[in-house]
Amino acid sequence: MKSIYQQVLGSDFDKLHPQIQKRFGFNSNDKIASIGKGVMQSVWYGKPYTLPFLYIGTWRNIMFPQKGKDIPFTIENYAYKDKFGRETVTWVRKYQFPKRVRRFDATMIYSEQRNRIVDYLGTHQHLAVDIEMTVAENGGIKLRSGEQRFYEGFLDFKFPMLFSGEANVCEWYDDKEQKFKISVVVRNKTWGKLFGYEGTFETEYITVNSKADIPKDVLPVREEIRE
């Protein structure tokens, strides 16, 4: 079985750096997880009027109104099948600021109906975001967020981009440093830059025999079938 990222990129997946292929190439049948540990050289947010966006994000571990330099962080990628039988990968980022831990949680699936990755942001999968994925010139992987949809109970609507942002992400492997690097910028067309970070990390691959081995705090509280 191919990983959800192989399904999207097809033959272009082979153009990725071998270390990026390894990080994005496993699925739940492989019984492994990728645990990254490193340092965010910079975590930042936009101008003061962007803070309400970030405070709202803290309710569901999406974005947060805090910045800093050289912040220790971890990123946990577990592959499993959700209760609807969909191949799913966790993206749980934890930032160890001096006085508290901040989180940015997401789970990704491959949507056959949309023919792309759908990224459920937050702890409750309320926000479903279409992801465009391409190969960067340096062999890294580039992700750009697109349409966003809000789902909760009977609520089902396109989330207005006036109150959200477009994320541009690039993750690559630096052969000289022998480390992974990541850069993220979230921008709103009206309000400008909202949030972002850039950092460096190393990855350990651990054995995961079943979904029961995945830490509960990494899994979403609620799973949404609407894509």
Keywords, separated by commas or semicolons:
single chain, 227 residues, mainly beta, ten-stranded antiparallel beta barrel, 3 helices
Note the topology:
Layout lengths: L3 H6 L8 H7 L7 E14 L5 H8 L9 E14 L5 E10 L4 E11 L4 E6 L5 E9 L5 E12 L2 E4 L7 E9 L4 E10 L3 E16 L20
Antiparallel strand pairs: 1-2, 1-11, 2-3, 3-4, 4-5, 5-6, 6-7, 7-8, 7-9, 9-10, 10-11
Q: What would you note in describing this structure?
A:
The chain has helices at 4-9, 18-24, 51-58, and strands at residues 32-45, 68-81, 87-96, 101-111, 116-121, 127-135, 141-152, 155-158, 166-174, 179-188, 192-207. It has 227 residues and is mainly beta. It is globular. The model has no long low-confidence stretch (mean pLDDT 94). The longest helix has 8 residues, at 51-58. A ten-stranded antiparallel barrel has the order 1-2-3-4-5-6-7-9-10-11. 36% of the residues are buried.
Quickly count the helices: 3
**What does the overall shape look like?**
globular
Structural class: mainly beta
Oligomer: single chain
Distance between the termini: 21 Å
Fraction in helix: under 10%
Mind describing the biggest β-sheet? Answer: 10 strands, antiparallel, barrel
Number of strands: 11
Give unreliable regions as ranges.
none
Tell me what portion of residues adopts beta-strand conformation.
Answer: over 45%
Secondary-structure element sequence? Answer: HHEHEEEEEEEEEE
Strand order of the largest sheet: 1-2-3-4-5-6-7-9-10-11
C-alpha Rg (nearest Å): 17 Å
Mean pLDDT over the residues: 94
